[in-house]
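Thread: quick sanity check before group meeting

JM: Hey all, I'm pulling together slides for Thursday and realized we never actually wrote out the predicted structure for the chain we discussed last week. Dropping the sequence here so it's in one place. If anyone has concerns about the input, flag it before I start.
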Amino acid sequence: MEALIAELEQANLGKLLYDEPLTKHTTWKIGGPADLLILPAGKEQLIAIVKLLIKHGQSWTNLGRGSNMLVGDKGIRGIVIKPANGLDYVRFEGATAIAGASYSFIKLSVMAGKQGLTGLEFAGGIPGTVGGAVYMNAGAHGSDVSRIFKYADIVLETGELVRYGAEEMRFEYRHSALHEMKGLVVEAAFELAEGDRMEIASAMASYKERRLRTQPLQLAVAGSVFRNPPGDYAARLIEEAGLKGFRIGEAQVSEMHANFIVNTGQATARDVLALMSHIQSTVEQRFGVKLVPEVLVVGER
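JM (edit): ok, ran it. Output follows.
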């Protein structure tokens, strides 16, 4: 590791943060430190970082905005890569929106609307990055990334930069090929369509109002904790099981939306995992349905 760090520091490929608390980098504000958090300065720097890690036999963990991730209380050993300012951009080529991995997915929907392009309205309340949205096939309001996805440029664990289309991404509900392979999204392109600016703005305002009214977004939360089972909603099952407001430690099932867990103060990953387990067992006992987590659990517990 020392030789790797020496090369990284000499190459000046981005910011290096040692023993960095990941509470600062997740929306749940939970998680121990990363041994080394790397913030690449740009696309070429990200590729160079991956190649250096391969050279030194080091694996890594991907981190976006941390809006769909639970980091263990002991943190993450080794390297964490978080695409930062150098990958925070968007450009439009006709009806195609091309954005860097760290660009806000919400902001992308807003910018597309200002261009008079429709197709991204569903993203107006999804609190993550473009890279994370592609990874998770993020969606809401009956649509998702797969409906508008054109391609993504991805750095593989070999250091090779490839361009994957929709077929290679193998999108499913809250799932993509990146779940089975080691790769970092560098940028992604979305195929939109010309629309009426007023109608787009109206739809986005409606979605935003609904989210603010039904989801505890002003608190320390991740996204939806569990996937919706086929033909049903996780939130309905959790609420029907009488678990709204139930808490373990300082982790609580939201009173506003049952598929959100709120960090009420100093919740630990252990609190959240215990609460998730209790929700799963209670719902399965009551309804015979095994809820599958949507949040990613990483790091040491």
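AS: nice. The chain has a mean pLDDT of 94. The chain is about 30% helix and 25% strand.
JM: adding both to the slides.
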